[in-house]
Every structure is written in structure tokens, then in C-alpha cells.
Fold this protein.
Amino acid sequence: MDSDGGPLGAGRSVGADRFVGRPGIRDTGVTLPLGTLTAVSEPADDTTGSTAPAAASGGPDPLADADYRLAVVDLLGALAYGELTAFERLADDASFAPTILDKAALAAMAVAEYGHFVLLRDRLVELGVAPEDAMEPFMPALEAFHERTAPGDWLEGLVKAYVGDGIAEDFYREISAYLDDSTKALVLNVLEDTGHSKFAVDRVRAAIEADPRLAGRLALWGRRLVGEALSQAQRVAAERDALAALLVGGMSHRGADLAEVGRMFARLTENHTRRMATLGLSA
């Protein structure tokens, strides 16, 4: 990989993995799931702005509600597939890292992502669900997303991971406001950053500092990504009835009204603008 952000090699592209996801360099281009990338360089306080209360603790088991249980299985399946693929792609990326330190950093992140996958897989098993059955429904839509947003080089892949996964993380955090306490704790745990955000930010900013001409191209790329990612978030929610009901209040004592959903997507856009600024790019 050239330090100026040139292609890593013919026939290779950097793809992302989770709901939008981690970068991965694959001969096949893109195969993708849902995901999450936490932004290390973002404000530490809660940026979701959601006013929705979390599901109350105590009382009847919320998972006894069949519709709610299905929504939880969908959510955990989407996250699990994203984490598994993030592990695979980070391990692949390590082999293309320009320095030994970069290689070691990516390998450590891959191990952390696999640990997140194990937590989700084990929870699905506890719920009596085969993990592969929970993950499979999210593969086609995400593969289509990544086919439309295949990066052309290392830097575009890093921007895609940081920006796309950041939107995914925000989306899942918004949904977590309507989960029972136990499920919410698990989701927030697996959304914790593995260090990949800072990794991406540091390298993109260094590349722009070395060659300011890169900023314009990467800014345009970031704008394309946000539109595709927000459309994908809406599609995922709309195609899974249980998730949509959880989000918009189709279940007792959960969900947001349509006005709040609109505000949620506005918050996702605002957070994207902050991430672009962190990269040194205009949104």
C-alpha cells in the first residue's frame, strides 16, 4: 500500500462489514453483513439524543412476548453476522498492512471482534435459536449495499469503515433504547470500540496532511456513503417486521412515534457530520 492512498493491488478492494462495517481486502470484492464501528475520536457523551425510556427492569420477562423476542433475535443475528465478518476482514487486512505495527494492531482488533461475536452467538443459543438461522436473513441486503459502495483504495476503505460503521453503531444504539435491560447491556457491550476508529482516523488524517489533494475526493466519497448507509438502515428496519415494530412502537410500551423516528435519522446525519470533521473532511 502506498502512503498516498493508492490501490493495494489489482482486483482487491476494501469493503466494510457490519451493518455497514469494517474494512476488508478481499479478492471477491464484497460480501456483507450488518455492523458497528465505534468512533474513538468522537465525544464521549451519548450522542443519540433519544428520549425513549429503556424497557423497565423487573416484572414479567419481556422475552415472553413472541413479537419482541423475534425482534431481539433479528437484532442479535444482524450484529453477530457483522462481528463475525469484521473478524474475518480485519484478519485479512492485517496481511496488507504497510507496517508491522499496523499489522499487529489490526490482528488485535480482529481478536476483539471475534470475542464480540462469541457473546452474541452464545446469547442466541441461550434463546434457543441457531445462530446461523438468525444471521442469514441479513446477508443479501448488505451484500447489495457493499456492491454499490466498493472502495477503490486503502483510504476509501478506511473512510467507509469509520463513516459507515459509525452510522450503524448510532442506529443500533437508538434501537437499544427500546430493549430490555439485559439485551441492551449486551448490545452496548458489543458496540464498544476495538480501536479501529482511531486507527482509521489517524491514517486518513496523516494521508491528507501529506497530500491535501486527497481531501476533496475522500469528502465526496463520505457524502456518497452517508446516503447509501441511511437508505440501508431504513431498508433493514422496513424488511424485518419485528424490528420495525420495535422501533416505531408496534409493541406494548416500546418504540417511538414517527416524529421521533424522523429525529433519529436527523441525529444519525448530525453524527456523520461530526465524524467527517474528525477525519478532516467536509460533510
Notes: Residues 87 and 111 are 7 Å apart (CA to CA).
